[in-house]
Specification:
The protein has 2 domains: 1-334, ANL, N-terminal domain (Rossmann fold, 3-Layer(aba) Sandwich); 337-436, GMP Synthetase, Chain A, domain 3, CATH 3.30.300. By secondary structure, the protein is an alpha/beta fold. It has helices at residues 5-21, 24-45, 47-52, 69-74, 76-79, 86-99, 128-142, 182-192, 201-213, 232-242, 352-360, 391-408; strands spanning 105-106, 109-113, 123-126, 150-156, 171-177, 196-199, 222-226, 246-252, 255-260, 266-268, 273-279, 287-294, 305-306, 309-314, 326-333, 338-341, 347-350, 366-373, 378-385, 415-420, 434-436. The chain is globular. It binds zinc ion. Zinc ion binds next to loops.
């Protein structure tokens, strides 16, 4: 049973209210008030932040020195306000991951461990009150309208002890481990008959295949994509096969950042987090990378945290009436921006979405792809052609498209290798179709 049902309900109601009424100056004042309070708290209780901000005016919190995952992990014990050592939290998190039993806690706090992408894995602590707040808020933001009893299937790498607890009479949650063999997942879904299926797009894609084959027999009213980049071609295919909208939750262990509204627009959760969006270095377009300040978290304050994602924002307000800004696309990670050498001797950034387009627009016969850059000026493309399509023709078209796109940006001819078949993805790892290996 959930530890704080009244707290959950209170957060649910308050989150609904804020989404409906906070906009413009009122939203700015709200953010300012909460940010000042949380900055003062972090400065008093987290020795790392106190030292990191020494000599700065805390009232000008939008200009305080930034932090990132590397700094957070290096100073973990003084970065959190409960003095939990990194080793103790990591031991609990790894043990939970191996046993697939996510009930364990350290000092009464739930521990989360971010997925393997590159470099450090992030460790996150949450108190029972923070969990209740999170649960109430995410329900308020993701349940649009109300259609009676709801069954929700969650596919997650780990459930970190959160989702199972928020079920109740009207909403039934079932957690599915992403490591579950696909055939078992299909059988369990056929029995459960969910109204909403939440999972990474790679998993939803597999479910779409099963449904197209007739093995999966469910009729959800909505799919929700989490944890990985939802590319437009994936979205189209999912919407075509299931004949329902695909919404998104942009959440990472650093916080709940954006959620799709009933109209399908991905709204930043501006009453929960402040996203300061900076232009990308060397970029000459509307792509930005966010610096996150969480307005609520006290156990492990996330303030002026560089997120390392590439986003495009939508300038137009959403017809749903929400005053929260809209994220047009989440393209991927800054680490996955690829570089090609320009004619003037410099390097030019090519964003993950540009790489995706140069591959996919080359031929209608591509079933799936991965692009890996091992060094600047080079690209290795793994391709899966549709059944019956001649691979050599598809591969030739992809090579020509990459060469032509790179040339159009005044760059030297790249070294392009096209390989048949996708590279295997480690179990439980996130799918990243465009990847740059660090040099
Ligand atoms: Zn909207």
């Amino acid at each position: 049973m959930f530890a704080h049902p009244p707290l959950l309900v209170a957060h649910f109601i308050r989150a609904r209210w804020r989404a409906a009424y906070l906009r413009g100056d009122a939203l700015a004042r709200y953010q300012e008030r909460r940010a000042r309070r949380i900055v003062a708290y972090a400065s008093a209780r987290a020795p790392f932040y106190r030292a990191h901000w020494a000599g700065h005016d805390l009232a000008r919190w939008r200009e305080l020195p930034t932090v990132d995952k590397e700094l957070m992990m290096r100073h973990f014990e003084t970065f959190n306000t409960r003095g939990v050592p990194r080793e103790a939290a990591m031991a609990v998190a790894l043990q939970a991951e191996q046993s697939r039993d996510f009930q364990s806690a350290v000092s009464g706090l739930t521990v989360g461990l971010s997925a393997v992408t590159s470099g450090h894995r992030g460790l996150f602590l949450a108190s029972p009150e923070e969990q209740a707040g999170w649960a109430g808020t995410i329900l308020a933001r993701t349940l649009h309208g109300f259609q009676g009893r709801l069954r929700v299937a969650f596919f997650l790498r780990s459930n970190s002890n959160l989702y199972e607890r928020i079920g109740g009479l009207l909403i039934q949650f079932r957690y599915f481990d992403l490591m579950l063999p696909h055939a078992e997942a299909v059988a369990a879904l056929n029995t459960f008959q969910p109204h909403i299926v939440v999972g990474p797009p790679s998993l939803l894609g597999f479910l779409a295949e099963s449904r197209a084959r007739g093995a999966l027999r469910i009729a959800p009213t909505r799919l929700v994509s989490v944890a990985e980049v939802l590319e437009p071609q994936d979205r189209q295919r999912l919407e075509a096969i299931f004949a329902v909208p695909v919404h998104q939750i942009y959440q990472c262990t650093e916080g709940l950042l954006a959620v799709s509204c009933a109209r399908g627009a991905l709204h930043m959760q501006e009453d929960l987090v402040v996203l300061q969006c900076e232009p990308l270095p060397g970029g000459d377009d509307d792509r930005v990378t966010p610096i996150v300040s969480d307005l609520w978290r006290r156990t492990q304050p996330i303030l002026r945290y560089r997120l390392n994602d590439v986003l495009r924002l939508d300038a137009a307000p959403c017809p749903c009436g929400s005053g929260f800004r809209v994220v047009h696309t989440i393209e991927g990670r800054c680490d996955d921006v690829c570089y090609f050498n320009d004619l003037a001797g410099g390097r030019r950034p090519f964003y993950p979405d540009t790489i995706r387009r140069m591959v996919l627009l080359a031929s209608p016969d591509i079933a799936d792809y991965q692009a890996v850059q091992e060094r600047a000026g080079q690209l290795r493309v793994h391709l899966e052609a549709l059944d019956g399509a001649p691979f050599d023709v598809v591969a030739g078209a992809v090579r020509a498209s990459v060469m032509a796109t790179v040339a159009r940006y005044d760059c030297r001819a790249p070294e392009v290798v096209v390989e048949r078949g996708l590279a295997p993805i480690a179990p439980g790892a996130k799918r990243r179709r465009v990847r740059r290996l660090s040099e």
